From TrEMBL, chain A:
Predominant subcellular localization, coarse grouping: cytoplasm
CDD domains linked: proteasome_beta_type_3 (cd03759)
Natural source organism: Suillus placidus
Record key words, sorted: Cytoplasm, Nucleus, Proteasome
PROSITE patterns: PROTEASOME_BETA_1, PROTEASOME_BETA_2
Subunit text: Component of the proteasome complex. The 26S proteasome consists of a 20S proteasome core and two 19S regulatory subunits. The 20S proteasome core is composed of 28 subunits that are arranged in four stacked rings, resulting in a barrel-shaped structure. The two end rings are each formed by seven alpha subunits, and the two central rings are each formed by seven beta subunits. The catalytic chamber with the active sites is on the inside of the barrel.
Lineage: Eukaryota, Fungi, Dikarya, Basidiomycota, Agaricomycotina
Cited function: Component of the proteasome, a multicatalytic proteinase complex which is characterized by its ability to cleave peptides with Arg, Phe, Tyr, Leu, and Glu adjacent to the leaving group at neutral or slightly basic pH. The proteasome has an ATP-dependent proteolytic activity.
Name of the protein in question: Proteasome subunit beta
UniProt-annotated location(s): Cytoplasm; Nucleus
SUPFAM superfamilies documented for this protein: N-terminal nucleophile aminohydrolases (Ntn hydrolases)
Taxonomic superkingdom: Eukaryota
Similarity annotation: Belongs to the peptidase T1B family.
Keyword Cytoplasm: yes
GO CC term (a single one): proteasome core complex, beta-subunit complex
TrEMBL record, chain B:
Main function: The proteasome is a multicatalytic proteinase complex which is characterized by its ability to cleave peptides with Arg, Phe, Tyr, Leu, and Glu adjacent to the leaving group at neutral or slightly basic pH. The proteasome has an ATP-dependent proteolytic activity.
PANTHER family listed in its UniProt record: PROTEASOME SUBUNIT ALPHA/BETA
Intracellular or extracellular location(s): Cytoplasm; Nucleus
InterPro entries per UniProt: Ntn_hydrolases_N, Proteasome_alpha, Proteasome_alpha-type, Proteasome_asu_N, Proteasome_sua/b
Family: Belongs to the peptidase T1A family.
GO annotation, cellular component aspect: cytoplasm; nucleus; proteasome core complex, alpha-subunit complex
Native source species: Suillus placidus
Location, primary (coarse class): cytoplasm
Protein name: Proteasome subunit alpha type
GO BP annotation list: ubiquitin-dependent protein catabolic process
SUPFAM superfamilies named in the record: N-terminal nucleophile aminohydrolases (Ntn hydrolases)
UniProt entry keywords in alphabetical sequence: Cytoplasm, Nucleus, Proteasome
Subunit structure: The 26S proteasome consists of a 20S proteasome core and two 19S regulatory subunits.
Domain Proteasome alpha-type subunits as annotated: residue spans: 5-27
From TrEMBL, chain C:
Physiological role: Component of the proteasome, a multicatalytic proteinase complex which is characterized by its ability to cleave peptides with Arg, Phe, Tyr, Leu, and Glu adjacent to the leaving group at neutral or slightly basic pH. The proteasome has an ATP-dependent proteolytic activity.
InterPro entries the record matches: Ntn_hydrolases_N, Proteasome_alpha, Proteasome_beta2, Proteasome_bsu_CS, Proteasome_sua/b, Proteasome_suB-type
Organism phylogeny: Eukaryota, Fungi, Dikarya, Basidiomycota, Agaricomycotina
Name of the protein this chain belongs to: Proteasome subunit beta
Principal subcellular localization: cytoplasm
Record key words, sorted: Cytoplasm, Nucleus, Proteasome
PROSITE patterns: PROTEASOME_BETA_1, PROTEASOME_BETA_2
């Protein structure tokens, strides 16, 4: 039994046309025993950057609080919001600092980064538990159902999906992948980030 | 007679005074005024800038990401507290940085915004340390803290180099604070709304500031209110353009004048 | 292994814990109170490594009280949960890690709502409508899934709790026997007989 699988949970992020989506399940377990069907593991960093933290639940909370601290200090001093790429590097360096005693989390990030012309470019990234960054162009997955998520995402994803289509795609990917995983599921939540707003929806899934 | 007892913070004088602290307060009395007024639905802060000039690069203040101010007198300490500083600017920057760290530490421990009085206390505990241990000189800064927390709602505190703090309905630090304080005593009423408080602050500033007319090059302004929709305190440090608009609305703007400040 | 339950209802939280202190095959004590009263509106049931439990529970109790004395008002349940969690999480990767599981039940006097937090020895915190620790949880949680009502009156809540206790007595090899049951609501903390 790996410590990464103790609490369960999975996260996925996908790129669309001028939008990104990030989704996760809501299960918190103690190995096979389910404890809560309302455990949030995706958190807003700014209006345009979200981070998903699958893995050991205590580290989910610890990392979320540490990132909030560092991003608040950044925002107050820089007098501007942090960009997704910068945040990704912040995550990576924070994790590497604990290279020989790591946090048991594999973060997934999604956001919209500002281009020099003033527009927005979709951005997703993921790291492993010691901070190795992966800047994918299509989707990133992590958690106990990551292998299943890879499979379904590879099949369903296509480039340039509009916000509503991206929502459908990521929802179906997540729901079907976690149904095959014993440690993920018990509800799901999806956030679609566009330049004007963020749409958050809770999905109705199998509660077994 | 004072000379033999004033070079170290760690000793009292025979009359029982700590001269270094008094000298620090003297330094502050030469700094730009900072004025604060507590209203029933908000707190208002205004400050006179001393570092001005045509060649000063204020582009970040004009375009800034919503935090306003030129970073000389007004600082956002946490999402629920604005600090106004008077005294030695570099000491002030160090204290502001400390305050911001303390507020985030509290958030990390309690998952809650730091209560305003607690933030003032932490800073004061640190300032007091510099009057008793280590032989280092005290911070030459007085601060006004304008903040909101769910327990005591809107609050205004003042702390000085000795590490002492107190809560106020209206107060003033820096140059001409005596004049401003007596003006505030006459004109302050309990139950002021934020709009009236803004007017009061600007009127008192215009009478106590060294320069003849008010304008955004000499004035920094901030207001802390509570956003009912978001259910969270809202801290706003005004950008130069917003200050000018406010002054025009209050009828205190300077008439079209000689010196181009662009 | 020590069993504890807790559930929320309309304006209250019930926290129950067994009262036995067991070492190997011997019941050393049968009237131990494993529910600490951290503040006028905050209860904490603890279980886990003997020694660590009482040490940590008293450490928490004293620090929460210190905060209250220093700052004139008590910590709200959410802030207390956060502080407790941080104390556990910070020592987790050191030699002084505490192996204690907690159920934190409180009444938030500013928002007038009951709050219940499930906290494990690693510092996992989750707010739940009902919770349990120990072997008894394997029996109680499913019963609570079925019979718990967040708007139930205190009598109904106590009846649901009794179901859990009876099930554990019936099916768990080491029947704890007696339970201490405490209730926290807007009027504070009181003990009830089940």
């Amino acid at each position: 039994m790996s410590i990464m699988e103790y609490n369960g949970g999975s996260v996925i992020a996908m790129v669309g046309k001028d939008c990104v989506a990030i989704a996760s399940d809501l299960r918190l377990g103690s190995q096979a025993l389910g404890i809560s069907s309302n455990f949030q593991r995706i958190f807003p960093v700014t209006d345009r950057v979200y981070v998903g933290l699958p893995g050991l639940a205590t580290d989910v909370t610890t990392l979320r609080e540490r990132f909030r601290y560092r991003v608040n200090m950044y925002t107050i001093k820089e007098e501007r919001e942090i960009e997704p790429e910068t945040f990704a590097h912040l995550v990576s360096s924070t994790l590497y600092q604990h290279r020989f005693g790591p946090y048991f989390i594999e973060p997934v990030m999604a956001g919209l980064s500002k281009t020099p012309s003033g527009g927005f470019k979709p951005f997703i990234a993921a790291t492993d538990l010691i901070g190795c960054l992966n800047f994918a162009k299509d989707f990133v997955v992590a958690g106990t159902a990551s292998a299943k998520l890879f499979g379904v995402a590879e099949g369903l994803w296509e480039p340039d999906l509009e916000a509503e289509d991206l929502f459908e795609t990521i929802s179906q990917t997540l729901l079907n992948a976690v149904d095959r995983d014993a440690y993920s599921g018990w509800g799901a939540i999806v956030h679609v980030i566009t330049k004007d707003k963020i749409i958050t929806r809770t999905l109705k899934g199998r509660m077994d | 007679m004072a000379r033999r007892y004033d070079s170290r913070t760690t000793i009292f004088s025979p009359e029982g005074r700590l001269y270094q602290i008094e000298y620090a307060m003297e330094a502050i009395s030469h700094a730009g005024t900072v004025l604060g007024v507590l209203a029933k639905d908000g707190v208002v802060l205004a400050a006179e800038k001393r570092v001005t000039g045509k060649l000063l690069d204020l582009s970040s203040a004009k375009e800034g990401g919503g935090y306003g101010g030129s970073g000389e007198k007004m600082f956002l300490l946490n999402s629920n507290v604005i600090g106004g500083v008077a005294g030695i600017t570099s000491d002030a920057n160090s204290l502001v940085n400390y305050a911001r760290t303390v507020a985030q530490q509290h958030l990390l421990q309690y998952n809650d915004d730091i209560p305003v009085e607690l933030l003032a206390q932490r800073l004061c505990d640190m300032k007091q340390g510099y009057t008793q241990f280590g032989g280092l000189r005290p911070f030459g800064v007085s601060l006004l803290y304008a903040g909101y927390d769910p327990h005591y709602h809107f609050q205004l505190y003042h702390s000085d180099p000795s590490g002492n703090y107190s809560g106020w309905k209206a107060t003033c630090i820096g140059a001409n604070n005596g004049t401003a304080q007596s003006l505030l005593k006459q004109e302050y009423k309990d139950d002021l709304g934020v709009e009236e408080a803004i007017g009061l602050v600007l009127r008192v500033m215009s009478k106590t500031m060294d320069s003849t007319t008010l304008g955004s090059e000499k004035l920094e302004f901030a207001v802390l209110t509570y956003d009912e929709a978001a259910k969270a305190p809202k801290a706003k440090i005004y950008k130069p353009a917003e200050i000018d608009a406010l002054l025009r609305a209050e009828g205190l703007a300077k008439k079209d004048e000689d010196t181009e400040m662009k | 292994m020590e069993t504890s339950f807790a559930l929320t209802g309309k304006g209250y939280v019930i926290v129950a814990a067994d009262t036995t202190a067991i070492r190997s095959i011997v019941k050393m004590q049968i009237d131990q109170d494993k529910i600490k009263e951290l503040s006028p509106h905050l209860l904490m049931a603890y279980s886990g490594e003997p020694g660590d439990t009482v040490q940590f529970a008293e450490y928490v109790e004293r620090n929460i009280r210190l905060y209250q004395i220093r700052n004139l008002y008590p910590l709200r349940p959410a802030a207390a949960a956060s502080w407790i969690r941080r104390s556990i999480a910070e020592t987790l990767r050191t030699r002084n890690a505490y192996s204690v599981n907690l159920l934190l039940g409180g009444y938030d006097t500013s928002s007038h709502t009951p709050n219940l937090y499930w906290i494990d020895y690693m510092g996992t915190v989750v707010e739940v409508p009902f919770a349990a620790h120990g072997y008894g949880s394997y029996f109680a949680l499913s019963l609570l899934d079925r019979y718990h009502d967040p708007e139930a009156s205190l009598e109904e809540g106590l009846a649901t709790l009794k179901r859990c206790i009876d099930e554990v007595s019936k099916r768990l090899v080491v029947d704890p026997g007696k339970y201490k049951v405490k209730v926290v609501d807007k009027d504070g903390i009181r003990e009830v007989e089940i």
